[in-house]
Each structure stands twice: as structure tokens, then as C-alpha cells.
Amino acid sequence: MSETKPAEALKAAAVTPAYLVKASVKARCPRCGAGPLFDGWVRFAPSCRACGLDLAAFNVGDGPAAFLILIVGGLVTALALMVQLAADPPFWVHILLWVPLTTALVIGCLRLSKAALLIIEYRNKAREGRIADPRQPGEGAP
Questions:
Q1: Angle between helices 91-123 and 17-26 (to 10 degrees)
Q2: Beta strands in the chain, from DSSP E residues, in sequence order
Q3: Of residues 18, 15, 48, the one with CA closest to residue 34
Q4: What residues are paired with 47 via a beta bridge?
Q5: What is the distance between the alpha carbons of residues 109 and 114, in angstroms, rounded to a whole number?
Q6: Residue 101: helix, strand or coil by DSSP?
Q7: DSSP helix, strand, coil percent of the chain (3-state; round to 5)
Q8: What contacts 60, CB < 8 A, 6 or more positions away?
Q9: Residue 73: which H helix or E strand, with range?
Q10: Is the model's pLDDT at 10 over the cut of 60?
């Protein structure tokens, strides 16, 4: 049975980077602390099974994937160059080493980064941007 914290405690704890890392690793709901956030490897569940938070309303998008491809790609390329310069292995060794490692790193880190972004969006109450109606006083009008 999962232990849940009150919503106020979760919001206060969400301020720290340590909480964000811990919550991302556990992939728990940002509102109630129950889990899991995911239905598959990297697909969010439609809603939280415990509190009913609509997870489909959050727009995580392709940001985590783009950054991970660049970060993991740079890291794996640097490692492959170091191995090539140090040991000069045949090309098939590179394929056997780097393709599975890159795939595992991207998928594993994608879960973490998507969970972290969803938690940050929830904490900051991020929503789609809207242009204020200039006819409505007090809503962005000078």
C-alpha cells in the first residue's frame, strides 16, 4: 500500500530539487503522491488511479525527447570516440556496444524527464498561453 501525503505537504516539498528527483524516479502523481504516472514504458496514464488528476491535460510534448537525444547522443559519441582511440575495435563492436546502450539510456531517462516535467507543470500551474482580449479591462490591457 502506498503512503500518501497531504496536498499541501507535496506542494511545499516540490520546491526542492531533491524532491523533484525523488518524485521523478518513483513516477508518482504530483497531487496525491500515489502512482504510477505511466501506463507503458513512456506513455502517461490518462488519469491518476487514486485522485483522478487528468494527466492528459498536461502538455509535456517532445521537449524531454529532444534534449535527451542531444545529451545522450553527445555522451555516447564521446564514449565511442574514447573507445575507438584507446582500443581501435572493429566496427561491429561499436554497433554491439552503443546501439543498445543509447536505446536504454534514452528510454530510461525519458521516463524520468517526462515525469519531472509533468511534476513541474503541475507545481507551477502551467497552462497553454492565451492572448488577452484588449476589450476586457484588467486582463493584460495597459
A1: 120
A2: none
A3: 48
A4: 54
A5: 8
A6: helix
A7: 55, 5, 40
A8: 44, 114, 117, 118, 121
A9: helix 63-87
A10: no
